[in-house]
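**User:**
Make up any protein.

**Assistant:**
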Amino acid sequence: MGAYILRRLLLVIPTLLGIMIINFALIQFVPGGPIEQILANLEGNGDVFEGISGGGGDADFGGEAESDYIGGRGLPPEFIAELEREFGFDKPPLERFLTMIWNYMRFDFGESYFRSISVFDLVMEKMPVSITLGLWSTLIAYFVSIPLGIKKAVRDGSSFDTWTSGAIIVGYAIPGFLFAILLIVLFAGGSYWRVFPLRGLTSSDFDQLSLIGKAADYLWHIALPVFASTISAFATLTLLTKNSFLDEIKKQYVITAKAKGLSERKVLYGHVFRNAMLIVISGFPALFIGVFFGGSLIVETLFSLDGLGRLGFEAAVARDYPVVFGTLFAFSLIGLVVGIITDLTYVFIDPRIDFEARG
């Protein structure tokens, strides 16, 4: 197993490098860089993208002359050249890329162009929201879906199985943002009841509350956004659990255990559970990371939560490249490591699995 883990760790390096090369190359063709943003604001032209008609770009991408900057033709060339030096765009793309990778290898992600804060500190500032949505959404999805999936497998074909399948499929079909709006209208003072707050993770007087009061206030604030983020995960996990149990229940060892006189409960949880839950439980790390880093931008916006989803969107729109590439590097690295952890989870749940022998 040690050799397999070592190979997977070594494979992380070229994979991560390939991700960064592809994204850096694609960025070269995107119009409207950070310098154009600054120049458009200085000229009073508003958003730089309003003036983009399909051509042009800044020195970061196309290497074009200063006069090609939209909104910058009325500014001194020396000023534009100084901006290029400040942002590092006076260097060729290859040199910028190699410098960026060298810094990232030392986990130096640089500083945001427009926020005057390091990328690392900025991510840490937004982390609590993403942890809240990712962790609670994943835990609730598992705690509800696994018992429900087991019961559906045991009562396969019954009326309970039929109507629960219909309910979770309807929940899966409803877009997350539409469900979030429905929750706001019904329970957050939209048109009916004002039961839950609509902004932030905590109240303004959070620091003055007791420990129990803080916990209650926190749960009160996250109830609606977590529910909106979780609803679509129920269908996949529930049906996956049901099908896994159905496959195991039909196997010979289950029939043999029942023939020996074991109770259905003992057969189900003493023999079937471990084998059936292998694929479900082992996917927990990947599911959590997926919700954690891919948290719904719309849900965060609707509930006024300043998390990583909004951070990534705003950085992409503003062309804040240190934030875009810094978070891309960190999240890709974590995603690759989580893939290894998922494989180790398979082995932990079922020691009969041997990835090294397959290699």
In short: The two ends are 10 Å apart (CA to CA). The chain has 17 helices and no strands.
